[in-house]
Amino acid sequence: MQIPAYEAMQSDERLREKLCSILMRGVSTRNYESVLPEMAETCGVSKSSVSRQFVEGSAEKLRELCDRRFDELDLLVVYIDGIRFGEDHHVVAAVGIAADGSKHVLGLAEGATEHSEVVKGLLVDLVDRGVSPTRRRLFVIDGSKALRKAIHEVYGSENLIQRCRQHKVENVMGYLPDSLKSQVKTVMRAAFRLDADEGMARLRKQASWLEKEHPSAAASLLEGLEGMFTVRRLGLPAQLEKCLLSTNIIESTFSGVRYRTGRVTRWRDGAMALRWSATAALQAERSFRKVIGFEKLWTLKAALDHDDRTVQEAAA
Questions:
Q1: Which of 4, 35, 275, 293 could lock 239 by a disulfide, CB 3.0 to 4.6 Å apart?
Q2: Domain ranges in the chain?
Q3: Considering the entire predicted model, what is its pTM?
């Protein structure tokens, strides 16, 4: 016999919200009884029901994220990077910084940043939801050529692109033996602290030294070199500049996603990765604070509003 009150308790939207919140704290569906004893005993919430409710709840979170509009936000910076789930699934995410310093999860797309159609689709979706191409912005990216191309196609070549320095260091280290990694990393980080022209000269010299025995490392170091000094050429306050030189802001969001999805051992498909990413990203967004140095964001806004062709050509 179906009992209306019993069914209502099992299908209550608040239950879905509670389950999403609990699972995002790293509790597996197998151990949910330890944190939901009353629900488990009084509502007959089985493990399969927990999974089903979370699928529905996470799908709602994904729809919520995909339906967001940003017409009223003056977004100055857009960070784009990817996260991997298991062996086969990737999700690209975009996080924006508004003129008041607030951070916003802008959107997600299934796929890797190396796939031009994936990142282009994400950017077109952002345009449709109010991230207008009429505003000149700074894009901070992982260095993917496909991503850079998509930004130019959707938002135009007038925008500034900063290559993530941390990604560059990791890429170069991947081509070096352990005996050289510490030395080269120190040289790169020291060069990054210099003015653009001097810093690039030091890195070119380092690449020349590496070229004979480690040509792949040298090529990686030189690839997109100018883009790593885009922000430095703007002459921004040091405190603000620091958070614009890498994708660490989006990485911190991903660290929350990784923490909240750490107990997932089997990713069935890309849709599952998207749902979990959306739920975890929105959960992480609740604790977002304004970007460090937000009081000086007016200097970035002024630089973006000023049509400085020198900076654009150097970053091209």
A1: 293
A2: 4-66, 75-315
A3: 0.80
